[in-house]
Amino acid sequence: MRKDNDDGTTVFIQEGTGKQTITDPRLAFARQPKEYLYDFKQRFDGSSTALQVIYGLDLSNKTALITGANAGIGFETARTLALHGCEVIFACRSESAADTAIEKIMNERPQAKCCFLELDLCSLESVKIAAQEVKLRYK
User: Are residues 6 and 56 in the same domain?
Assistant: First the structure.
């Protein structure tokens, strides 16, 4: 829901939770009045972090499966989603590497919900087993 304050600022209120923000998190680009066809201000770029992109979102009751969540972009994505309340399934080849990554997130947010799922994308048999396990555990 959008609300304009007396001082001229626009506040966005998330329905259900009542959280307020001055930035609408659903928008990927903030646009200003155009003078020219290609005149716009990009809100996110290559230096933006995952935390900046989903700032203000409540991902409680959401589940995400992330491949390669133990390192790199996969880890940063898993971390960001877990910090915002999402249950994150770490789909990785190595359980020990996934456990180390999960431990880092749990140190940052003890109530985070993270679990490991063995998945080797080089093996179609592994993909099939992982898919069956996800179907059994989640709706």
Answer: no
pLDDT tens digits along 100-120: 999 999 999 999 999 999 999
Q: What angle do CA 139, 83, 24 make, to 5 degrees?
A: 90
Q: Are residues 37 and 54 in the same domain?
A: no
For residue range 45-86, what is the model confidence (pLDDT) as tens digits? Answer: 777 888 888 888 889 999 999 999 999 999 999 999 999 999
Range of the domain at 92: 50-139
Residue 8 phi, psi dihedral angles, 5° rounding: 95, -5
Check: CB of residue 12 under 8 Å from CB of residue 22: yes
Q: How many residues does the chain have?
A: 139
CATH number at residue 134: 3.40.50.720
Centroid of chain to Cα 27: 15
* C-alpha dihedral, 67 to 98 to 117 to 72, nearest 10°: 0
Indicate the number of domains in the chain. Answer: 2
